[in-house]
């Protein structure tokens, strides 16, 4: 993509994510709509806000980029034989952190990523309650826009694995025994709790040093935030292989992974 195309697409992503965020906040503020929660086959919650945000994103993306297919949880049953032929596609999580949404703690996001050849090349993570948007594109750096302020570049912190007091991110909703065991290797770590893809963004911003995710996630949970981490100087690494997490696999379940600051 040319620089002009990248800039234009990024602005489109920012606009779309904010529109989806407004749909979420409309339901978040309306008690008659907020409590309408269904449950998916795996018993995870699905709110009216998930559906409204997805509809808004899908409609806008189909207009902006009609030739680029869309993959999201709602489209998870697209046959691998079909999507394996895609050269690029949008990976969408319209409401990441549904449990955080239901808890009303504000730690939920809208995630949109552009994937090409198994790698994320562009991504946007919008935080509706904070009106804050993180974004990045391959080779272009990572940035944050808070409310109506100018975009600010963000960078991950330099990481010394042997240092005392490293800041490790843990989920409010998921703290597996594997993570507890992983944390034991560090000297006097500081634990930082956060929900949704904001855990990855904390590392990208330099507000945390390591995020071990040794429990299940899906590709749409991480794609948008991964490019932001990488463009901020960090890495998102498959815990078993030590290689970057990749996308559009036959099985859309992510491997266990670790997010690191600058090493």
Number of helices: 8
Helix coverage percent of residues?
25-40%
According to DSSP, the number of beta strands is: 14
CATH class of the largest domain: Alpha Beta
Number of domains: 2
Strand order, biggest sheet? 3-4-5-6-7-8-9
Q: Describe the oligomeric state of these chains in a short phrase.
A: single chain
Structural account:
A seven-stranded mixed beta sheet has the order 3-4-5-6-7-8-9, sandwiched between helices. The two termini are 29 Å apart. α1 packs antiparallel against α3 (48-64) and α7 runs parallel beside α8. The chain has 263 residues and is an alpha+beta fold. The longest helix has 26 residues, at 3-28. It has eight helices and 14 strands. The chain has two domains: 3-153, Fructose-1,6-Bisphosphatase, Chain A, domain 1 (2-Layer Sandwich); 167-260, 3-Layer(aba) Sandwich (D-Maltodextrin-Binding Protein, domain 2). α4 links the parallel β3 and β4.
